[in-house]
Amino acid sequence: MKLNAIEAGSAAADRVPLLILHGLLGSARNWGAVVKALGESRRVLALDLPNHGSSPWTEIMDYPFMARELASVIEHLGGRAAIMGHSMGGKAAMTLALSRPELVERLVVVDIAPVSYSHTFAPYIKAMRGVPLGEVSSRGEVEAALAGAIPDKGVRAFLMQNLEGGAGGYRWRPNLAVLGAHMDDILAFPHFPDDTAFQGPTLFVAGETSDYIRPAHEDVIAQFFPKAESVEIPGAGHWVHADNPSAFMSAIGSFL
Fold first, then answer.
1. Which neighbouring-strand residues pair with 176?
2. Which of 89, 136, 173, 178 is deepest in the core (most CB within 10 A)?
3. Which of 108, 140, 146 is nearest to 229 (CA)?
4. DSSP secondary structure string for all residues of 112-159
5. What's the confidence (pLDDT) of residue 11?
6. pLDDT for the residue 14
């Protein structure tokens, strides 16, 4: 499978390429400003994960599958890369680091832990699938149709980034049917033997007002990622890079 990517920068003698992985219902486009900034000093690629953005659709959507696809990308790039993943993308990155550590030079995990969650996006997917796209004539009508089920304007704006089309009609870029069917896989985290660990440099980035990384997760993070450091971004929720971009860039810049 060839994953779509947006790219900046060029190969640097002293730095491996950096791959950036978005979260559920996100896309590489969400990371455009970060790609541009980090691309000043190295090759950076933000990927559309399977069933998202402009990447191919597939009936499979779990973390071992995503990790295998990422491994293929890294092998094509030369065999080693730094990885930064947000939310679902962070779980895919952690799965890759734990299963194929030789491919991962360092790891940044943004607002997620290696555990199962109950933060389901199923209501968002249901609302998106419920919009009669064949009957609307503007993006405003689509957003208005979402408003009843999704009152948060910021969340609606995020979801609307997945809408494609115009005068010829509209469509959602993600494979909503498969994402909804595999929500349990996306909320979960794969099982690894207790002695599994990624020994490379690792940074966990949490949003101050987010509840995705909690004190109860410290032990499992230390177990799987014994060299992990952590930083909290003030004033940021789950979409850390969008909520406080300057603090986020400062935190990851010094690590990468």
1. none
2. 89
3. 108
4. --SS------HHHHHHHHHS-GGG--SHHHHHHHHHTT---HHHHHHH
5. 82
6. 80
Quote the pLDDT of residue 1. 85
Tell the burial category of 230 from Cβ atoms under 10 Å away from its Cβ (0-12, 13-18, 19+).
middle
Q: Identify whether the C-beta of residue 169 lies closer than 8 Å to the C-beta of residue 111.
A: no
Measured distance CA(77)–CA(151) in Å, rounded: 42
C-alpha 49/C-alpha 56 separation (Å) is 9
* Opening angle at CA 115, ends 113 and 116, nearest 5: 125
Spell out the domains of the chain, with CATH numbers in brackets. 5-116+189-255 (3.40.50.1820), 122-181 (no CATH)
The H or E element containing residue 47 is strand 44-47
How far is CA 252 from each of CA 18, 213, 229, rounded to the nearest angstrom?
Answer: 12, 17, 11
Greatest Cα pair distance, the chain, in angstroms, is 55
10-residue mean pLDDT profile of the chain (256 residues): values are 94 89 97 95 96 97 98 94 98 99 98 96 97 93 95 94 87 97 98 96 98 96 98 96 96 94
